[in-house]
């Protein structure tokens, strides 16, 4: 078959396969802690600066958990978009528990509003 006839066959290029896992990342306000997590809530990468130790282990763990939750929501919303683009109906996506973009933004706002982490280096005197 000639090169010309291969280009004129009228077949569209196949869509890339949907990945098995969707990953997203979140960072705290100061940029000192970041977490990447899957759409199933599994953290796959956690990085933080040594200075975060000064707040104590529990505070660091709480912030890692909060950022993991944020990353999971973003990854779930991306997963929904990927599956919707492939033709999956909205009712199935809803049953899978994958949030719409608006629902994800609302949930991220709720999580951020609940963030009570340190906002300053200054201590009360």
- The structural class is alpha+beta
**Number of extended strands:** 3
Overall pLDDT confidence = 86
Q: Strand order within the widest sheet?
A: 1-2-3
Give a short account of the largest sheet: 3 strands, antiparallel
User: Count of DSSP helices?
Assistant: 4
Seen as an oligomer or otherwise, the chain set is single chain
Poorly predicted runs are none
> How much helix, percentage-wise, in residues?
40-55%
Explain what the structure shows.
The chain is of the alpha+beta class and 125 residues long. The longest helix is centred in the middle third of the chain and has 29 residues. The protein starts with a helix and ends in a 12-residue tail after the last helix. The chain has a three-stranded antiparallel sheet. Helix content is 42%, strand content 14%. The radius of gyration is 21 Å and the shape is elongated.
């Amino acid at each position: 078959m000639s090169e010309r006839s291969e280009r004129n066959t009228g077949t569209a290029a196949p869509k890339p396969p949907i990945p098995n896992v969707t990953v997203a990342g979140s960072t705290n306000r100061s940029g000192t802690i970041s977490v990447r997590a899957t759409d199933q809530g599994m953290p796959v990468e956690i990085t933080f600066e040594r200075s975060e130790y000064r707040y104590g282990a529990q505070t660091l763990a709480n912030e890692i958990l909060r950022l993991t939750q944020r990353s999971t929501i973003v990854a779930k919303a991306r997963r929904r978009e990927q599956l919707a683009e492939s033709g999956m109906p909205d009712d199935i996506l809803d049953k899978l528990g994958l949030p719409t973009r608006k629902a994800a933004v609302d949930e991220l706002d709720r999580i951020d509003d609940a963030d009570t982490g340190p906002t300053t280096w200054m201590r009360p005197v």
